[in-house]
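Regression report. Comparing outputs from two consecutive submissions.

Submission 1:
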Amino acid sequence: MIRVAVVGAGYWGPNLIRNFAACPDTELVAVCDRDEDRLAKVLRPYPGVDAIDDFDRILMRADIDAVAIATPVHTHAPLGVAALEYGKHVLVEKPLAGSVAEAEQLVHAARQANRVLMVDHTFIFSGPVQKIKQVVDSGEIGDLYFIDSVRINLGMFQHDVNVVWDLAPHDLSILDYLVGRLPRSISAFGACHANEMAGIEDVAYLNLDFSDGLLASFHVNWLSPVKVRHFIIGGSEKSIVYDDLEPTERVKVYDRGITISDDVEAKRGVMVGYRTGDVWSPHIPQVEPLSKMVAHFAESIRENKQPITSGEAGLRVVRILEAAQRSIKAQGGRITIWDDHELRRAA
């Protein structure tokens, strides 16, 4: 049993508390929050769990193996680094940190302590995304041409981060899971409406260029009158449409696209044919993603292995978020994420 303490009993904390308490591989030992009334309310169904209002007490306890952090973004790095230095394994709510520098601190601290650092990119553990990963990795859709994502709704407004840092990590983590590398550059536009004085964007558009023909675009929005959760992957052979709000067939694979003749003369004339084939929706088991995420965290600790949503994966997402923020402030100026030297070094 991995003995766990959850830090933060606000919006996301109760979901982690419920799943760590229910997971057969973990024991929920304590929950930490400075609001004692909130602690008492959240822990009412869990009488054996300790309520603690001081994070230092969590660090000092030898009966706690791992810490799950569900606190405001600006606290992720200091709390996570401290826990790692005290020998705790760490799970951090998305995004991993509020800057690349802080995310790098967390990754470095985990390496130094030889402890698991994992990001709660919950959608990676959902049935639809797991199925999409299988289809993409099988080569069935061919080369990736484009990825289009729309994640919009009315609220919930955040006070410490803008809409990019709040909503985009979900789809950027899916992108990273499928593609496994950073984009070459990004251009982003955003606007502030509800909280203009604080400069917190509530609408944003991101365009990512992978320099090999793959483009990805993301629309995130707190002002939309309707809720939309669309993720489209276009390939050379087939395409995938993922609608997270669809009650039954959330993933559909389309055998539709174009064919280009191999004949040189035909190519000069841009002879393009259109292919229309079958549409199929794979069976996807109904399992709560958060429960799978918690189980994977425990498994990674027990087997001393790198989790799917590792600190490095979280760092890649934060690199994109920070570059997007710089681009927004530069009125859409294209920001290079990987330069040629870094690409050669990574290869």
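Submission 2:
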Amino acid sequence: MKPTKFLFTYAIFCAAALCLSSGANAGASPMAIESEPFNWTGFYIGGNIGGLSSNYGFGQYTDTVDVDAQYSEFNAMTSGKITGPHLNAVSGDGEATDFGTDSFLFPDTAFSNFGSGSNQSFLGGGQIGYNKQFGHWVIGVEGDFQGTSASGKQLSSGFAETTSSFNDGGAIVEQGNEIIADTTLDAVRKAETDWTASLRARFGYATGPFLFYGTAGLAWTDVKVIATETASTDFFNNSDLTAAANPRGGNGFIGNQTDTNFSKTSDDVQMGWTGGCGAEWAINDKMTLGVEYRHSDYGSHTYHFASNDEVIFPGDTKVDLDTNQVTLRFNILISHFFGH
């Protein structure tokens, strides 16, 4: 069984145990219950551990590959295997331009493999808060912080073809003597989360040593987005291609240039809302045990990547994030511990 599924199952078991225990206490002597009333009023501090399910949604983005730069790198490493200065196809007025750049739009290209990234992970941390009881009703405020190691990843692939002529012996050649550049770009977007935090109101109903409550408020989480791209370009000499030759590996193939843009990162803190419910059981007048479920929605944020490379430029990427968590909690009742 996966760790997170185990925690969810265990949490449900704990909740059921709390309810059964509540039913058992309900059958106790009324005078015994009245003689030892429990008051939830006061400050508390505690810890928690549980499971987190994270759903990352990656928005549309455009990556760019500088085919000119790849051509120059390839020609330098092969000692000028493509002869003459780097020029593109001849225009109508006899001038020439560079290869230029290829743009890859994800996820709209036909070669894209695109979906949302999800992850299940542990989380653990602590909470601090204050309750005030009015009869059976309890209101309070709580802040918490958890560390985690959640992540989600998406992969995409795109293809583009460009053509160029070159200057051989000082004269611009005919367009039939073209260089064909076939570029495949593999792009990865990975999002990582190291911590979550929240500040919430709580409203509940107390019956003896049991408290059942709902909670809602603001939530924060850190998100780091990593962009990694690999551009692989095959160069072909169109003048060497024959009807019997395979354009992707026959007589016209000159060589390949591959460049990788390693781990360009962008990070920020996303803020959203969180809400859920829980139950607590007072073991004694100084400590409680409980279980809590919360859903959190951190909205979306666009991440920008600075690039010093001359070949691949990662596009800005929007990330949506929402999570579900179940935690087992314990609290030390500070006010009870030191007396009211």
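Expected: both submissions complete independently.
Actual: both completed, but the second showed a warning that disappeared on reload.
Relevant detail on submission 2: Residues 1-35, 84-96, 167-176, 241-250 have pLDDT under 50 and may be disordered.
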